[in-house]
Amino acid sequence: MRNNDRLAAQVRQTILDMICRTNGPHIGPCYSCVDLLVGLYFGGMNVSPSKSESPNRDRFVFSKGHASPALYAVLHRRGFLTDKDVSGFATNGGTFQQHPDRNVGKGIEVSTGSLGHGLPVGAGMAYALKKDKSRARVFVMISDGELDEGSTWEAILFAGHHKLNNLVLIVDYNRMHALGPSKKTLDLDPLAGKFRAFNWAAKVIDGHSFKAINKTLATLPFHKNMPSVIVAETLKGKGVSFMENDLRWHYCCPDEKERAWACREIKAGVKP
Amino acid sequence: MRKAFYEKMADIAAANRDVYFLTANLGYKFFDEIRQNSPEQFLDVGVAEQNMIGLAAGMALCGKSVYCYSIIPFLTLRACEQVRVDVCYHNLPVKLVGMGAGFTYGQEGFTHFGIEDMAVMRAMPNMTIVVPDTIENAVRVAELSENFKGPLYIRLGRAGVHGVGNKATLKSIGKASMIREGKDCLLIAIGNMVSVAQQVSESLAVYGISTRVLNMHTLKPLDGMALLESVKTHKFIFTLEEHSIQGGLGSAVAEVLAEAGYRGKFQRLGIPEKLDQVIGDADYLWEHYGLSAGKVTRRLLKIIGKV
């Protein structure tokens, strides 16, 4: 657990560096999913840089593509990306754009960025893998805003109907849309109940507790004849007090003072 | 045409376990053979076109060759962004099989017309667009599509009748078929309009006008070489398509001719952008919008200066 805290802090630091270097947006939605990504890439999923082409690898679809620095930072920490790759984030002639691109490779399975695409593609992967009697699983992470998209619900209906027990959806439920609280934009509650009504097995967890994350990932699938969904209660901007649950950090980049403050808090968050 | 296409596909499915057929709950009876012989390779996803295209991309990412079927506007417009991002950007072997080119679903009305699809699909990166005109050519496209590498849009409509002994004239995707030689004017047609073009060329012959007819079955990549051959030799070049006049065959040909410095008379014939409040079947609508062989002939004679 302590190791996970340390990894998460390193990932948050890398994200901060990437975003400050490029004056980029979306640090808030990056920080809400860091702990989940660390849980997935360090134990939760069967993936490794040496097996990035293996047909038996688990697939990860990062549907909330706007939080790509979080994905890149975790892939970096897990050994998929080099320091040089990371330094090529969002620079002219660099490696990575603001949204993940499969054509770049390096562990990125699907290009995303337009919301509501990840779950249909992930469901297609899960369907094909089942046909091939593969043991590989498909993990899809979406933002709560993506649950406004009709295409997401088309796929939820499909996956439940076809009993895709090799499909795992993780909802980064930070309850903050791009212009305000989810509750005021389009209320998604009761969320787990909606999934259950669509024949999914749902668990609601604290998306920042490694104890909960690791335990939950270890018990997949939740039901032998259903797709699994983890409704992860998270905080936008988690890990830096002044960013937490503040919409500003969907868009703004920290200035020098804020950056130093954030660095201190990220370091302080790791118990010695 | 659609029936023959899927009968051929049934053979391909039986021989290749990695070929899958998805439909968004349309195509009554047309999948019967595939469903009977290869039930594991058929999937009705329900009335959910966006999900169908996303699923197809996911399946293709896991090594499958996937066909997606629906009526043209639902397939190409409802799921347009899924086609753009999930299929085309990843350059995946997903085949979009759209039924109802132009006014094929005449009495069904505007929602079912396939009149903007070629323009939209033409703008998609990595997309190839092929439009068979006869049953034989549709079967040929089915054969050619099996091992086709990237995204492919197959636009189906009503089958025209031409050719000798009903043989396929479509040899390969990307290479236009010359179906009649002539020296005065070049008439380039696609899909449902190829048969009309042939009738028109026969009528023009009565007036002493010799017409070369080109079946431009592949809209993208366009066979520019076949056009450039005529730039210096033909005084008139016409395009004929059952699609909006904007963005389809006529536009694609115009681009090539303009860049080649064509100095003759060029005219696009197709469906106007703004439709009239008129109800009828495909033949009736062809007549109304000037796409019947008789109407096209009269229009061309006027342009050529024979009437």
Question: What's the SSE blueprint?
Answer:
The complex is a heterodimer of chains A (272) and B (307).
Chain A: H1 2-22, H2 27-44, E1 59-62, H3 68-77, H4 83-87, H5 118-131, E2 138-143, H6 150-161, E3 167-173, H7 182-185, H8 191-197, E4 201-206, H9 210-218, E5 228-233, H10 256-268
Helix pairs in contact in A: 1-2, 1-3, 1-10, 2-3, 2-9, 5-6
Chain B: H1 2-15, E1 19-23, H2 32-37, E2 42-44, H3 49-61, E3 65-71, H4 72-78, H5 80-89, E4 94-99, H6 117-122, E5 128-130, H7 135-145, E6 152-156, E7 177-180, E8 185-189, H8 193-206, E9 211-215, E10 218-220, H9 224-231, E11 236-244, H10 249-260, E12 265-271, H11 282-288, H12 293-304
Parallel strand pairs in B: 1-2, 1-3, 3-4, 4-6, 5-6, 8-9, 8-11, 11-12
Antiparallel strand pairs in B: 5-10, 7-9
Helix pairs in contact in B: 1-7, 3-5, 8-12, 9-10
Short description:
The complex is a heterodimer of chains A (272) and B (307). In chain A, 42% of the residues lie in helices and 11% in strands. Chain A starts with a helix and ends with a helix.
Number of helices of chain B: 12
Quick one: how many beta strands of chain A?
A: 5
Based on Cα principal axes, name the global outline of chain A.
Answer: globular
| Main beta sheet strand tally, sense and closure of chain A | 5 strands, parallel
Q: How many distinct helices of chain A?
A: 10
**What is the mean pLDDT of chain B?**
95
CATH superfamily of the largest domain in chain B, called what?
Thiamin diphosphate (ThDP)-binding fold, Pyr/PP domains
Q: CATH class of the largest domain in chain B, please?
A: Alpha Beta
CATH topology term of the largest domain in chain B: Rossmann fold
